[in-house]
Specification:
With 150 residues, this protein is α+β, with helices and mostly antiparallel strands. The chain is built from six helices and five strands. It has a five-stranded mixed β-sheet, with helices on one face.
């Protein structure tokens, strides 16, 4: 699939403002897709469409939730960092999701069971009530689905 095909398919499930912070959306609008990593977009499409199969929520303007996807230098979670901060969120490779009708631990187990469905290595955060999903490749020594503790 081309990047354009991936984005077109993802638009069935997500609007760009759900995947990027409000600052990026306000400045770039639909062009903000450019800041999201292609591997992440493809893995997210597979996650939502093939692995989870339920509605997934990232950012939600009505609930005033804006920092669960791409985070820019204006986002509070980034600005308050004292040291270098290059999280997967800042690199356009991550999102935190609530899945309507499924708890996060069940989602993590499904991702592990479907590891071979993803085109690249993926990471999930352990022990949290949401699904953190990213495509940061930590290197050869790490499994296809790596569960980490923040």
């Amino acid at each position: 699939m081309t990047r354009k095909q991936i984005i077109d398919d993802l638009k069935i499930y997500f609007k760009i403002q759900e995947l990027v912070c409000n600052h990026a959306f306000e400045k770039f609008g639909e062009k903000a897709w450019q800041f999201l990593d292609t591997d992440y977009l493809q893995a997210l499409l597979i996650l939502g469409r093939d692995v989870i199969g339920l509605p997934m929520e990232c950012n939600n303007a009505k609930k005033k939730v804006f920092q669960r996807g791409l985070r820019c230098n204006r986002c509070e979670m980034v600005r308050k960092q004292k040291n270098v901060y290059l999280s997967a969120h800042c690199l356009g490779k991550a999102g935190d999701f609530t899945i309507i009708g499924m708890d996060a631990e069940t989602a993590r187990q499904r991702i592990k069971a479907h590891a071979d469905d993803f085109p690249c290595k993926v990471r999930v955060e352990a022990g949290v009530s949401w699904l953190h999903f990213d495509v940061m490749d930590m290197g050869e020594a790490y499994p296809k689905v790596y569960e980490f503790h923040a």
